[in-house]
Each structure stands twice: as structure tokens, then as C-alpha cells.
């Protein structure tokens, strides 16, 4: 297995906000997707570690967060800004010159091949220094034998750390961890494994691989190998979180949601036709609006499962677009699906 450097930005959206609002640094505040006026119906997208110390975390309803801290500052997320910052972070990593896979807006992995652990640690320090000095943002890096283990040790080293996991320590490291710690194991898989009396990675390692394959197909085999210290995933050269999008300039400025919805529906249809043609599915939906002052805003929604459903995509895009329009005049709208992957040979989760 190649040595992998895995980087994940610390409290990414909130760190970006601290950068342009230095007065927020270290203060309790959250970034949420809902507009400020209707923040009560939104959820926390992320928050800095000082805020996490109060028990507040990603995906927590804002109302609940306010119960923990009544004077909590709320910032509406600005996805375009975070995407720009992400691009700059990724550029620093790209310049290291290794095969690189951008995994999400704030995560990437580098294939270090047969590099020694000492050299890899030096590189990790350099990358951290560079991201911090040129962009002013903190990140954490994990070094491990394979992408999955590098990510796990990165999670353990958070925040602002470097985690190193050597091959010989892998078994001990994995043994008592919950199955959810493995990349790709979400709530559904964890529940199904629990029904099979498998909660820890150690238990997964001792399970019958044939039973796992019967229940989860090829993913079952992958899980069994991962639990036993074998990570077969490769770092795939991927610089962008792959996306398929369409946008259109409207005949005139409007804030009429009926007009905008019709355009959005047509654009979503075009995007989905392309998705189907390429036999893809995706894990993110994004919309964009351009306003009368020529500024643009973007709203993204990360999905917990892959989708290739038109109805679901359109419904989500419309929800996001309503948050962007809010009576403001727009001239151009767009819809995009991202984190797109080939679904050849797999069945769809949301149906079509
Ligand atoms: P993460 O990397 O999961 O979280 P983080 O960077 O905020 O914090 P850390 O890595 O230090 O634990 O997610 C990256 C960004 O994705 C995050 O800043 C905001 C966004 N996000 C959501 O919008 N909703 C969510 O539920 C999560 C987990 C993240
Ligand atoms: Mg992060
Ligand atoms: Mg992340």
C-alpha cells in the first residue's frame, strides 16, 4: 500500500469567516445555511472549536444550539467564498507534485508512494506551514498506509495537528474503533452491521467474509479487507470535485419564483439528461444566482447518499434557490450536481 498524506481543513467554513471577520476569532459563532431572518429553521453547518466545547456541532438544529448559548452569533453560509478558498488550498497541495485526489471541498489526499515516514512528516509540516502562512487557515494532516487509514489518523489528530500511523500499529489502532470510523460506512451500513452483532472494526475483521459479501456485495469484501488492515483504494488523479452544471441568463431581471422555478426545472432536466447519459450519480447539489449588481451567490447541499433522481434534485435545487432569491432581482440562474461518480453496475438509491 502506498503511503498517503490526507489533509482536512479545520472547521473550514467557520475558519474562512474568521479570516474576513477577525473579531469573531475564538468567539462562539456558527455558520448555517438558512438566511439570518429564518435561522431558527436551519442547522449548524460548522463552528470553531471554542463553540464545539459548548456542545454545539455540525448538523445540530440552530434552535438547539441557541439553548446551549443564547447569544450565539449566526452567520449565513457563503458557499462561493468557501469554494474560492478551497481552490486556493488545493493549489498549494497540487504544487507538492504528487498524484492528488480532491475528495471534498476541504479534503484531499496525496499518493506519496514509497516515501519514508520521516520524509512524509517533514512534507506534512511544510504543507501545514504553507497553508497557514499564505492563506491564514489551519488544517490537520494524517499520514498512513492507504487513503482510508490516513483519513482516520487525520481525524484523530484534529485540530491543527499531524497524525502518523505506521503499518505495524494498524491492527491495534483499528481494533476498538467503531465501524463508523471506516470511510464509506454511514448510518445505514452501521445499523445493518449492528444487526449482525458487529460494532467494532475488530469484530468486523473476524466476521465471515462470505456473509459480508452476501449482505453488502463488493463493498462487503472491501469492508472485510479494510478491517484487516488492507486498503485497496487508490488515489485517483482528480483536481476538482467533478460536476455537471447548466446555467442560463433570464430574459429580464425578476424575483418571481414561478418564472425562476420554470427555468430551474428546465436546467435540472438538462443536467439530469447528461447525468443519465454518462451513467453517473452524485452526492451534491448546487445552485447559483446572479444579482442585479452583478454579484453571484452559490448554495450547496451535500447529500448523505448518491442520487440520480430528477424529482429529488429539482426539489432540492428549488429549496436552495428560494434562499438565494428572497425577493432580490436575479438575472442568471444555474444548477449543478457535484461529487459525481460513475454508477455502472450499481443500483440507484433514490430511484428515478
Ligand atoms: P468537515 O471537514 O466535516 O468539518 P469542518 O472542516 O468544519 O471541521 P473539522 O474538519 O475540523 O472537524 O466539513 C467541511 C465543511 O463542510 C464544513 O466546514 C462545513 C460543511 N459541512 C456542512 O455544511 N454540513 C455538515 O454537516 C458538515 C459535517 C460539514
Ligand atoms: Mg474539515
Ligand atoms: Mg472535511
Could you describe the 3D structure shown?
The chain is an alpha+beta fold. The protein folds into three domains: 1-165, Alpha-Beta Plaits, CATH 3.30.70; 175-227, 5' to 3' exonuclease, C-terminal subdomain (DNA polymerase, domain 1, Orthogonal Bundle); 243-342, Dna Ligase, domain 1 (2-Layer Sandwich), CATH 3.30.1490. Helix content is 40%, strand content 25%. It is built from 13 helices and twelve strands. It has helices spanning 12-20, 49-52, 62-68, 79-94, 117-135, 147-156, 170-175, 187-195, 201-206, 209-216, 218-227, 257-277, 310-325; strands at 3-9, 29-32, 44-47, 73-76, 99-104, 107-111, 139-145, 162-164, 243-254, 280-291, 296-307, 330-342. The strands form three sheets. A five-stranded mixed beta sheet has the order 5-6-1-7-8. A four-stranded antiparallel beta sheet has the order 9-12-10-11. It has a three-stranded mixed beta sheet with strand order 3-2-4. β10 and β11 (296-307) form a beta hairpin. α4 packs across α5, α10 (209-216) crosses α11 (218-227) and α12 (257-277) runs antiparallel to α13. The protein is globular, with a radius of gyration of 21 Å. The two termini are 38 Å apart. The model is unreliable at 347-352 (pLDDT under 50). Residues 8-13, 45-46, 58-59, 105-106, 158-159 line the site of thymidine-5'-triphosphate.
Mean pLDDT: 93
What ligands can be seen in this structure? thymidine-5'-triphosphate, magnesium ion
Helix and strand run: EHEEHHEHEEHEHEHHHHHEHEEHE
- The named CATH superfamily of the largest domain: Reverse transcriptase/Diguanylate cyclase domain
Count of discrete structural domains? 3
Tally of separate helices: 13
Amino acid at each position: 500500500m502506498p503511503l498517503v498524506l490526507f489533509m482536512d481543513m479545520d472547521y473550514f467554513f467557520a475558519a474562512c469567516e474568521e479570516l474576513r471577520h477577525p473579531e469573531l476569532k475564538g468567539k462562539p459563532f456558527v455558520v448555517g445555511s438558512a438566511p439570518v431572518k429564518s435561522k431558527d429553521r436551519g442547522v449548524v453547518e460548522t463552528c470553531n472549536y471554542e463553540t464545539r466545547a459548548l456542545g454545539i456541532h455540525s448538523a445540530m438544529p440552530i434552535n438547539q444550539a441557541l439553548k446551549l448559548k443564547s447569544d450565539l452569533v449566526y452567520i449565513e453560509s457563503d458557499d462561493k467564498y468557501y469554494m474560492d478558498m478551497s481552490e486556493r488550498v488545493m493549489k498549494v497541495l497540487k504544487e507538492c507534485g504528487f498524484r492528488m485526489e480532491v475528495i471534498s471541498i476541504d479534503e484531499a489526499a496525496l499518493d506519496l508512494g514509497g516515501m519514508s515516514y520521516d520524509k512524509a512528516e517533514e512534507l506534512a509540516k511544510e504543507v501545514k506551514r504553507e497553508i497557514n502562512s499564505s492563506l491564514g487557515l489551519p488544517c490537520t494532516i494524517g499520514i498512513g498506509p492507504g487513503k482510508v487509514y490516513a483519513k482516520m489518523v487525520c481525524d484523530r489528530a484534529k485540530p491543527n495537528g499531524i497524525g502518523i500511523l505506521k503499518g505495524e500499529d494498524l491492527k491495534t489502532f483499528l481494533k476498538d474503533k467503531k465501524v463508523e470510523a471506516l470511510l464509506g460506512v454511514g448510518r445505514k451500513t452501521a445499523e445493518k452491521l449492528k444487526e449482525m452483532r458487529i460494532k467494532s472494526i475488530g469484530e468486523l475483521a473476524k466476521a465471515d467474509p462470505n456473509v459480508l459479501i452476501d449482505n453488502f456485495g463488493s463493498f462487503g469484501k472491501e469492508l472485510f479487507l479494510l478491517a484487516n488492515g488492507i486498503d485497496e483504494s487508490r488515489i485517483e488523479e482528480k483536481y476538482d470535485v467533478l460536476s455537471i452544471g447548466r446555467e442560463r441568463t433570464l430574459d429580464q431581471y425578476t424575483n418571481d419564483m414561478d418564472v425562476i422555478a420554470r427555468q430551474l426545472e428546465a436546467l435540472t432536466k438538462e443536467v439530469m439528461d447528461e447525468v443519465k447519459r454518462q451513467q453517473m450519480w452524485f452526492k451534491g447539489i448546487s445552485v447559483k444566482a446572479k444579482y442585479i449588481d452583478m454579484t453571484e451567490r452559490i448554495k450547496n447541499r451535500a447529500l448523505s447518499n448518491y442520487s440520480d433522481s430528477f424529482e429529488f434534485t429539482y426539489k432540492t435545487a428549488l429549496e436552495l434557490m428560494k434562499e438565494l432569491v428572497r425577493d432580490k432581482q436575479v438575472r442568471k440562474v444555474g444548477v449543478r450536481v457535484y461529487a459525481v461518480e460513475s454508477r455502472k453496475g450499481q443500483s440507484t438509491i433514490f430511484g428515478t
